[in-house]
Amino acid sequence: MLRRLAGVGRRSFSSLNEQEILALAISSEEDDGRIYLAYADALKESYPATAEIFEEMAKEENEHRRRLIELYRKRFGERIILIRREHVSGYMERRPLWLTKTQSIDTIRDEAERMERQAWRFYLEAAKRAEDATTRKLLGDLAEEERHHGSMAHRLAEDHAPKSVRETEAHVERRQMILTYIQPGLAGLMDGSVSTLAPIFAAAFATGDTWQTFLVGLAASIGAGISMGFTEVASDDGVISGRGAPIKRGFATGIMTTLGGLGHALPYLIPDFITATTIAIALVFVELWVISWIQHKYMETPWSKAIFQVVLGGALVFTAGLIIGTS
């Protein structure tokens, strides 16, 4: 792995002959065509207009590949030597396809434009090195096609994804983010912030010991986080509901649940009981306000309703903890 990252054993681009350059161009066009088709398949359901863009781009790459193979056969015969982009140091890089699932639609479009710019530079440099007139012409033509009127991704986006379509896609993407991350994370934050109030403050007022209170808060927060995370993963596989991968939702829920509880548990690392409790209570109000803000911003809950729900629930749980702890 380290040898590969360091480029050990790779050829330099300047050392390639014309046969190797053509073979490299053929394999690169094949790979890029597959990448664009993979993008299209990944985006087809939610972003049909953008999926059509990548299908058109794959057709373009396939046409480039066909022309390159035709020239290669005329010059070097039927057997195309095996040389790929990872065999050449400093050559065009392509990001792993599995990252598509975690990237925004605009990021994927930007990646496609980056791929086109790299291809343009490759054909430009390859044409300079070619001595055969036919090869130089083809490589120069391909460079011009990559450059002409901006990138292929930009040109096709104007045709297939006008402003109205992109606005629709942005709305779909925002909704998916809310379903996969915001909603589960909010549920976790609410559970972690509210449900741990009773055990933490009950322990605080019952023992008067900040370290013991912190341990109770730490255990309650981590335990609640693990429980909420596994519950979210098991509750819905996301296939029918469209809420996204259960692992992503589980992590969002579990992490936010733990953080919600730790918010008012960490102050009890302060040895002074009065100071720790005062800071913890102040942080509770901050947490409840953050929860209300998230509900208002992302879930479109009216301020009055969000504040009433969160503050009332928090007040009831805090009161329960206080009564239990002082009884």
Structural features, described:
The structure is a single chain. This protein is mostly helical. It has 2 domains: 8-161, Up-down Bundle (Ferritin), CATH 1.20.1260.10; 167-326, no CATH class. Helix content is 75%, strand content 1%. The chain is built from 12 helices and 2 strands. It has helices at residues 2-6, 18-43, 48-76, 105-129, 133-147, 152-160, 163-195, 197-207, 210-235, 246-262, 273-298, 303-326; strands spanning 11-12, 88-89. The protein has a two-stranded parallel ribbon. The radius of gyration is 29 Å and the shape is elongated.
What gross morphology would you assign? elongated
Task: List segments where confidence is low: pLDDT < 50 over at least 5 consecutive residues.
Answer: 1-7
- Strand tally is 2
Q: What is the helix/strand order?
A: HEHHEHHHHHHHHH
Could you give a short account of the major beta sheet?
A: 2 strands, parallel
Q: Mind sketching the topology for me?
A:
Layout: H1 2-6, E1 11-12, H2 18-43, H3 48-76, E2 88-89, H4 105-129, H5 133-147, H6 152-160, H7 163-195, H8 197-207, H9 210-235, H10 246-262, H11 273-298, H12 303-326
Parallel strand pairs: 1-2
Helix pairs in contact: 2-3, 2-4, 3-5, 3-6, 4-5, 7-9, 7-10, 7-11, 7-12, 8-9, 8-12, 9-10, 11-12
